[in-house]
Structure prediction request, 1508 residues.
Amino acid sequence: VIAPEVGADRVGVGVLGATGYSGLELIRLLASHPRAALRAVGSRQAAGERLSRVWPSHPGLDLVLDDDPADPAAWLDRGVEVVFAALPHGAFAARAEAFLAAGLRVVDLSGDFRLESAAEYGQRYGLEHPAPSLLGTAAYGLTEWCGAELEAASLVANPGCYATAVLLATLPAVAAGRWSGAAIVANALSGVSGAGRAPSLGTHFVEVSGGAGPYRVGEVHAHLGEMRQALARAQAGGSVGGGAPGEASAASDDTSLPLLFSPHLVPMSRGIAASIAVPLARRAREEEIRALYRERYAGHAFVRVLDGDSLPDTRHVRGSNRCDIAMRVGAGGTMLLAYAALDNLVKGAAGQAIQNWNRMQGWPEPTGLPIDGWAIA
Amino acid sequence: VIAPEVGADRVGVGVLGATGYSGLELIRLLASHPRAALRAVGSRQAAGERLSRVWPSHPGLDLVLDDDPADPAAWLDRGVEVVFAALPHGAFAARAEAFLAAGLRVVDLSGDFRLESAAEYGQRYGLEHPAPSLLGTAAYGLTEWCGAELEAASLVANPGCYATAVLLATLPAVAAGRWSGAAIVANALSGVSGAGRAPSLGTHFVEVSGGAGPYRVGEVHAHLGEMRQALARAQAGGSVGGGAPGEASAASDDTSLPLLFSPHLVPMSRGIAASIAVPLARRAREEEIRALYRERYAGHAFVRVLDGDSLPDTRHVRGSNRCDIAMRVGAGGTMLLAYAALDNLVKGAAGQAIQNWNRMQGWPEPTGLPIDGWAIA
Amino acid sequence: VIAPEVGADRVGVGVLGATGYSGLELIRLLASHPRAALRAVGSRQAAGERLSRVWPSHPGLDLVLDDDPADPAAWLDRGVEVVFAALPHGAFAARAEAFLAAGLRVVDLSGDFRLESAAEYGQRYGLEHPAPSLLGTAAYGLTEWCGAELEAASLVANPGCYATAVLLATLPAVAAGRWSGAAIVANALSGVSGAGRAPSLGTHFVEVSGGAGPYRVGEVHAHLGEMRQALARAQAGGSVGGGAPGEASAASDDTSLPLLFSPHLVPMSRGIAASIAVPLARRAREEEIRALYRERYAGHAFVRVLDGDSLPDTRHVRGSNRCDIAMRVGAGGTMLLAYAALDNLVKGAAGQAIQNWNRMQGWPEPTGLPIDGWAIA
Amino acid sequence: VIAPEVGADRVGVGVLGATGYSGLELIRLLASHPRAALRAVGSRQAAGERLSRVWPSHPGLDLVLDDDPADPAAWLDRGVEVVFAALPHGAFAARAEAFLAAGLRVVDLSGDFRLESAAEYGQRYGLEHPAPSLLGTAAYGLTEWCGAELEAASLVANPGCYATAVLLATLPAVAAGRWSGAAIVANALSGVSGAGRAPSLGTHFVEVSGGAGPYRVGEVHAHLGEMRQALARAQAGGSVGGGAPGEASAASDDTSLPLLFSPHLVPMSRGIAASIAVPLARRAREEEIRALYRERYAGHAFVRVLDGDSLPDTRHVRGSNRCDIAMRVGAGGTMLLAYAALDNLVKGAAGQAIQNWNRMQGWPEPTGLPIDGWAIA
Prediction:
């Protein structure tokens, strides 16, 4: 048992997808969360095995994997109150309604509930949406940009890792009306864990080692949808966490909302570094923009706006739930260059999911989440 | 002796800076060059040592390192006709005149002769230029963009690694008048060998491993000068290889020539991947731009314009003198996204230096240079 | 302040060497230790700087670095009761007496107090011992093999990283009289952080990446002394933690105690994997030896004897204070092959130092120390 | 066509398994071999594709992949005289007879023809041998230890990568009668390309990165068979390249020939580093053993016995066909410690295959093979 001293002040949680990287990360963080009691862990691939057998680095995880699909009623009986679903896109959505109907709250880490529009989902993910009736009911869990939505939400759509980095670095300028509307150029570098744990030629050590380059550029990457939707909401002055349905629908391509996104794969396990150029509506000085960002993120423990002599790096946020952001202004003050780094598995996945859950429960956002990272790894 | 079978058809060469990464790379490539006879190798740090002792991977390099500063007359006596200088910025320039005066031709891999303006040099490199009278006399050796300059040149300034990638990927559009003049956003990733071989905290394995992020962004990076100079020359319809002095002087900041450059360090030894957004003067289709690039680079063995379903990656050019380029068009055809990858030590340094030398000698550009790379390294 | 809620149940600690890898690791672990109050941090290189500036991954470390050499009296006044010294060999020993005289307890992570014999120290470290009168007064802190010594100790010599791995994997057999006395062959692989943080050609990313090989083989490595001393003590039936002076003196070369040690450097940041062949005094079956090991380490949370179908790997212990051990028997039952993996900065340095301190204080060994590691890093 | 200038002095070659790492390496090396004309390339997975499409790093490889199984008669018609088979164990053996019957010579890189005994093969590879009648007819191609066998051979069994490293480092001592017969302890580190190109969890970047540890220890590894067979042949004074059938049969376990082998996986793409302890029959000095090794390998370009102050490293042999060997003597002169490093894909696979072919053709061994490696990769 993870938490033998479980008392009345803990909430029962369950995790689906425990053999994947985000699933393990959820379990790792929940195991030391002072208000969580991990009561059930599900896996499609390793049902019946000890979790410590699947993850030899975690002999302390003395749990046996449930079969998945899990039965919501059975999980409820075992004291589960909230489910974190860390399954591939399309795998959990059809079952979400049953979990919600049973009275469980759900934080979904897949892309299934991030978009308002079933059409946009189909285009981005190449699937017919398995539960279109739930679209628009989920809060989009970019924690620092969600207001009352999270407290009330039964279903939270946890943002994509790239989307988290790009949006945290651009939304303050966009929401403040500083974006000119001309094309935003977003480049990002990702570690290999972002591609998941299923073996493929593209994640083979020999194929990754010593290489770096772009992939899925143009209008291809799935995260483009949620990035455009959030930017459109912010531009319109609405809440990023979930505006009135339909508002963002027009922002589905690179002409209606000119965001050009180029992801790159680099030979590291964890981390996203995003570098984004935002054309400004009027000339600005660097300090002015930095002040705007600092004001926007004041009181938010996990977004750190760096001083002018520092720049973010994935090794500074490895293992942490932080997103570090820096900025420069160029082209005579007409272009903002925003730089962000986060750990794709923490702030880009499991950490933000727990941060959202903390908000759902009314606890302080940082509860159980690491500010400091692993300098040496 | 590298080339015991040296005959009348070989030209004597010397290399300065043999204990650095670019120096070794020069020696490695010259050792198998069918027209080169490597006659002298100089080092400030390891004079008197066998080269195979400095580089245990190269027992075949049976040469003893000369002391450096080398004596041009003595080198001439030993049959050296051309000198490749691979020393840090500012270390060779003051001696260049003596080598030239002795009748030797020089390919300089440092940044010392790339810029026309001593003022711009001072700003970029933080040094007073050691030989200002030579400024403007060097051909800028971006091989594919130099015409008659190279054949006639006594002194060639080999371009910087980042500059080579960024310029090869943008010049066809700029020279064809397709650039709108709005800010170009250039991001690039570099392997660690680009920082040289001198140990520092920033190149320590533990500090680099698993990290990725920007550095020297804003108006800081030394290569900004040569990139702007070349873009301004191309925009003005002049030769990138060296226009009439003074032409490019106005292009020294981000307002006169709005190029925003963000270099990033990633955990690999070799390679540069550049991703550049170029605002277009008028709407274009991807195929149209690709055709323009293909036409421009037709007949150039080392620039490969990829098909629309491919993207460049540093592991595809590792060990090769190629620069692979791909392109996409976004934002309704108003923005060109150009992607380039090259090996910073080959096409970005030693390989291009030899390519320039081949042109100086009137030999075919590919003489002695590898098209294929190291798929597995 | 790390621990604003410091109460009467916390003990004040100080750390010397905070800008090194072991120093940071101590601070990282002590910051979440429920009984530690980190009151002073010293650095020779970065006095006056914020710790979070030296380590951007740790914005939560809101401490200013003291100048070093620190004044024991001043530290005592500030509530420091125990000092962890993580300085290079020879740097702290001369000051140790002053700290001890002031009533502070000391855990020293250097090699200065591990050996009984000043002569052996001189041979191993190439230095005259700075405080020979303290030799033999320190407890050798291989926690699982120290008895009452630790509780009573004022000065603990924390073992070397290689020594910890090799000894934990061999001592159960040796102490049980199962070693034949013929040559033990110990090979070990280490990550680069074991070489410290000072930049050198040998730790340059480009020189390390993609390479693997032995170094300091033969009678050269400094850890040979403490390994032989501990094996001799165990063979003689004495306590590994510190026997009667003189006992182990005869074990100072490869004939008196035939241990052959070959360390290897591999391209990773953390971790040691040791593979050791121990000739057995009489034939044995694998299960018999495993049972012997399991009995010896029963009740010790940080040594895990794996099942017969598992093998240790550094990635399973990364970030953890565990040492995983597996064994096979070969050559007709006459040879034990013992395999161990640990994190050189945790169980091989900072973690074991804190484990020793827990014992000094009479707290449970696992207090504040991680069992689980970082599966993905 | 690789070699458009093919003349009468070139021999037609074919390669099977062109989409694997050893296959590519064969093609890469054969493409610059002055006596080879690459006429056919076969693949089970990518028939009909351009080789430059499968390997984007090799646009110069302008060949279309044949379907495989290839027809020996058709290949003969196309001028193929020798076939290099780089397929998984068990995949080619059944077809070998047809190729041989058609008059083609075969160098097989799999484990299928390395062992004399079908029973041993079954035990090592878990397969019934597909062509037992060919067992014992192949020359075992450890080039430096094969005599007249290679020149006459129609079928050469190319050794395993681990076996090559371990045998080159131990055979001089064993063949000279210096081995005592007590257990040899062989540890080796391998890069990930040794596991092949098929994706698996064990070769996933995230699972490999930052980890190091043993695998397939005990009596499990397939290369144990050929290592024991060669050692037994050398011990008996016979030829390692293929003794009288039956001689080595008794050497099939760890009691009849006590070799204990522990392979380790480390996070690099290429390379094997082996560290082997050989008990000596009588006391020896290091220089005496080094002289013995130097005499044995005199005239062999690809085995380099290092000086006493050097040690082998995989980065020194990366890309080269060399095997670097160093030695120390310990335990009072009773134990030889031999260290070897080679590139598993070159001297451990494709390079040695071509070296063997050079011998088969009566050409100098180094023809077309690299002595120098890639210092920076």
About this structure: Chain A touches chain B through 52 residues (CB under 8 Å). Residues 1-5 of chain A have pLDDT under 50 and may be disordered. The first strand of chain A starts at residue 11 and ends at 16.
